[in-house]
Write a structure and sequence with these properties.
mainly alpha, two-stranded antiparallel ribbon, 2 strands
């Protein structure tokens, strides 16, 4: 590619940009003695030797991308340092990964990833019910219990385990469930009838 305008071959790169001229580019065969190609080579070498950058504009999209990356990094630091949301952190430890997901939120899904509202342990903690023990009698009804152990959900869990066992060994972590098996874990969670639990 060669810059085309009316300038002589001794014009420095920085001067080319400062005169607000319009430049056109076209391709020529390299090392064929073309005067403008020699000039392009000279300018490229000059630009590599200069410590001063001879351009000053970035596309808006690049600035937006950089600002988004900075914002996500700050958000991640806040997320890592907070003592709140520990149950949710087990599902979504990385903000960047969560932002890439398209999740259809349902009451069951939200209750599960936040460990709020529907489990017997949560309801017992706020003295809404007398006991945190799951009706399956195999432990307290926590998010972990529901996903990994509850006997009342064995049929639903078999399907989940079958899907996951094609690639991973059960049990997998909660972050793996949402990052690799979002469709399967969402189906499992949404199939839970808490009224019968």
């Amino acid at each position: 590619m060669v810059l085309v305008n009316t300038f002589n071959t001794s014009t420095p790169c920085s001067d080319l940009l400062s005169n607000n001229s319009l430049y056109h580019t076209y391709s020529v065969k390299a090392h064929a003695g073309h005067e403008r190609n020699k000039l392009a080579d000279k300018l490229a070498k000059e630009a590599t030797r200069e410590s001063e950058i001879c351009y000053s504009k970035f596309p808006r999209s690049e600035i937006e991308h950089q600002e988004r990356e900075i914002s996500i990094k700050k958000w991640q630091q806040l997320w890592d340092n907070t003592t709140k949301g520990t149950a949710t952190k087990e599902f979504f430890p990385k903000i960047k990964d969560r932002l890439k997901m398209k999740i259809t939120l349902t009451p069951n899904f939200t209750a599960m990833v936040m460990a709020h509202g529907k489990t017997r342990s949560y309801l017992h903690r706020f003295k809404i019910i007398e006991s945190p023990v799951c009706p399956c009698a195999n432990g307290n009804q926590t998010v972990e219990h529901i996903i990994y152990d509850c006997g009342k959900l064995n049929n639903e869990r078999r399907k989940l385990i079958a899907d996951i066992s094609k690639e991973d060994h059960w049990p997998v972590g909660k972050n793996v469930l949402v990052n690799k098996y979002l469709k399967q874990i969402t189906h499992f969670i949404n199939s839970i009838d808490y009224g019968n639990m």
